[in-house]
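Morning, I've got a small favour to ask if you have a moment. The fold is given in discrete form, as structure tokens running alongside the sequence. I'd be grateful if you could look everything over and explain what you see. No rush at all, and the record is pasted right below.
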Amino acid sequence: MVPPLFKKSRKVNNYDLYANHAWFVPGVGGMFSLLGWFLIGNLLGSLLLAVCYLFLPKSVIDDYSMLVVYPLSFLPAMVYAAQKSQKNSLFDTGYKLNSSHFGPFKAWQIVVITVALTFATMMSFDYINYLHFKLTTSTPAMKAFYDQIVELLGSMTGGPFWSSFLLVAIFAPIFEEWLCRGMVLRGLLTKMKPVWAIVVSALFFALIHMNPWQALNAFIIGVVMGYVYYKTGSLWLTMLIHFVNNGAAVVLSQFSSLEAVDFWIDYFPTGTYIALSVVGVLLFCACILAFRRIPLEQKRGNIDTVTLNID
């Protein structure tokens, strides 16, 4: 006679990305497994790109290829996580990728605070990122390497505005937040102290950008998004931060007067820049204090367990 446990399994909605991965709760080892599958996805994307060059005009590839290649780089990791989750759903506890713990705030209020936090982070840490850039391009060899990276990134996002915006401001928040907060941070929060889980997931986020010039900014914004996820459990909010941060960069890049500007310090007069930096720091502190008002329901943060749904 087959035990009831093996006759029934939790329902998994094949069209719900979050439900399909809820029972895969990776630790450090699982994080590196996801990284490995992500790198395999990048390899598959590169192979697809090489094939495209054989059959499609170069202008079409330069303008639109990343709209296909970029999502493909995440596909192996997503399939791997779905399979692990399906297997673990028979025995293990699942944790939702997206929860909604907003404490004393209404949904629209937490959205406003989150957007304000994003802009405050951009201004508060601009000078640190600027110093990092100067340090890492201080030698001719590193500057030449940086120019090559910029040229490569430009070739991948140099298409029409709508395709660049779709890739950088829509696709990147959806796929990278699924991986870095929804999978990696959610898993680490169940395995280690929250501060270390946030830091490690932010380092992972910096690593997948695969170049030293984006790494520091990615780490800083990764820590901020990690804290927001820890306090709210909301992947939607971290996607919003990612969207605002990336979307602002894409929109500003469309203005001819800002084409060569990498940092706010390059654009604003000194006095204005200092004033904006001070306002940014004050606003950043105010937003963090607002998130601190959201009570924690468990040590792992406000990440809900999955409600059992057995046939």
User: Anything to note?
Assistant: Residues 161-189 form the longest helix (29 residues).
